[in-house]
Target: AB hydrolase-1 domain-containing protein
Amino acid sequence: MTTLQFHSQSRFESDIRFASSTSCSFRPRRNFTLPRRFRPRPPSLHSHSSTSLRPLPRAFSNDPAVTKKPSICTADELHYVPLPNSDWRLALWRYHPPPQAPPRNHPLLLLSGLGTNAIGYDLSPESSFARYMSGQGFDTWILEFRGAGLSVQASNLKELKQSADAVSEQIEAIAKSVANEVSPQKQPTGVSGYLSDSEFYFLREDSIGIGTAWDEAKLVAELTEIFMRLSERLSGFLSESQSRLISTKLLDQISKLLEDSQLSERFEEVRIKLANVLEKQQNSVIASQIRDLSQRLVNIIEGGQRSVSPQFIDIQERLSSTIEDFQKQLDLIVKYDWDFDHYLEEDVPAAMEYIRAQTKPKDGKLLAIGHSMGGILLYAMLSRCGSEGREPRLKAVVTMASALDYRCSKPLKVLLPHADPAQALNVPAVPFGTLLAAAYPLASRPPYVLGWLNDLISAEDMMHPELLEKLVLNNFCTIPTKLIMQLTSAFGDKGLCNRSGKLSYRDHLNKSNVPVLAIAGDQDLICPPEAVEETAKLFPENLVTYKLFGEPHGPHYAHYDLVGGRLAMEQVYPCIVQFLSQYD
Model:
């Protein structure tokens, strides 16, 4: 493995010191100057203009193509890729090379990090990794995973455009709300990647809350629907054990309403019967039994309401509120039901196949770059292909701030409490974007109570304050707890594993035949340099190059500085271009 450390020099030049083997296929010269065709071109001030808009491809509809992109999209084109057996449409931001750029043989796919969208790769015309790469001749595409950015659930182009516009407006609204010192969660929401007001409230509150007026027929219908959905395992979204766990939680909450009362025994009798019914296969008889038992539960509560006992005051309203909250929880479980392997097995392959069809590279291969989780996905793809003896159809790979073992990352250990499977049912999704936007004023304004949050994102003086604010307010989305649960396996002895835990994605990287450039930042607290280097060592030595950016006395690189830091265009981007050019 070749180890390189980069130091700041004159614009678009780097001094590279070799630390070990020279048997690497990436051989930059000492004090080298990039060939003219590889040198960065100053980005156009109008590179975010929408004057060169092109129609959306007819990815899944025969209707006339949409010709106007949402305002948040700064790419040349916005494409949508349908996921098989799903109503998800994945957004692909495309950046065309200018006519004067050097010709390239392979398209370039960019993959973003956990809970982020495409904006991190295209913060501004002066700090756009995507624009830089397209300026170097690469037909550049950014994938937004399901639930992120402009990726939406839609069945036709009209519905797709409405959803995409709503996402764009929501992102802009959050930024405006923080600028005006208004709580972000008060903004209108309800689109993919963002929580509605009621959903956000549900995830914040753990109490029963204030109920609504008593409506026996409605409550019976709602209880029946809940238990029917659990009996059907939420149409495949829940396993049998998960269904049992969540139904137990609901019944426990109802039981608390009846504690220390003469009705407890009657409730327990119904509870046992319901539990038995929910274990059985769904059919018309079971459905009838569920409705009858739901009616009996409501009748018990109604009997308690007529009791003179003080503890039954407002019990009907509290039951109504409990049922309403539970319905929201079931809806969230369905809405945010995906994990890391869904990205790996469905999202990334669908995007790669679509890009191949659009660009038609002669050898059918792509170049790929992944930041943070995006790089982890590329590692996992190479590992899985190695274990199955398949060709990954990637010409070369660059990872930035990515690893498969995060035991040395202290900030990320806050994810560990979510490793309990029950947590994914109690809190199906984490509104990370909304929470970060709410915390940002405390991190960026005196007295800087949460100033340490900035250090996780960018090193001191490495990102312009306006770009840092745009990154924080516009780049992050809601994260499914199932996704977090799988990623927490990266803190175990085996490193990141597939959802069953049987396959460690570290185990088969030694079988990879794809050249890899693994980049780390010297002050990255989320993915420390030692984690990046340890993962790089798992590849065949002649195919991997590890590079560390930053110097003891500065400048320093934190997690996002490798993509959007003020020196990235001078130091990081040219290095990536030269590496990819070796294999294009």
Remarks:
- The first helix runs from residue 129 to 135.
- The mean pLDDT is 74.
- Residues 75 and 274 are 54 Å apart (CA to CA).
